[in-house]
Write a structure and sequence with these properties.
two-stranded antiparallel ribbon; 2 strands; globular; 98 residues; binds zinc ion; 3 helices; mainly alpha; 47% helix
Length: 98
């Protein structure tokens, strides 16, 4: 028996990151790593989590449960996040605590 570690993962993370890469050129928002991560966390906090149990290190196959409505919510959340982040960019701040 090989000891395989199983991890819980919020698959929504992958979906948001994927969609962000698709939309990034259309977004009127700073593209630095800090703003990108702010944007992703903002969007994720507004979307329902989608947990999957997965073997660690395994490449995910795309879940086909992503409905059209999900897709629309995802895009809306990303656009909303881009707006908020571009209004309050944090990339010039030295400290992360607020
Ligand atoms: Zn930035």
């Amino acid at each position: 028996m090989i000891n395989v570690e199983i991890v819980l993962k919020n698959y929504m993370e992958n979906l948001v990151l994927e969609k962000l890469d698709e939309l990034i050129d259309q977004l009127d928002c700073c593209k630095c790593e800090k703003c990108r991560m702010d944007l992703v966390s903002y969007a994720l906090n507004r979307l329902p989590p989608k947990y999957v149990a997965s073997y660690k290190g395994q490449v995910y196959s795309k879940l086909d449960t992503l409905s059209i409505q999900y897709e629309t919510d995802l895009i809306n959340a990303i656009y909303q996040a881009a707006k908020i982040v571009s209004e309050n960019p944090r990339h010039n701040q030295e400290s992360e605590d607020q």
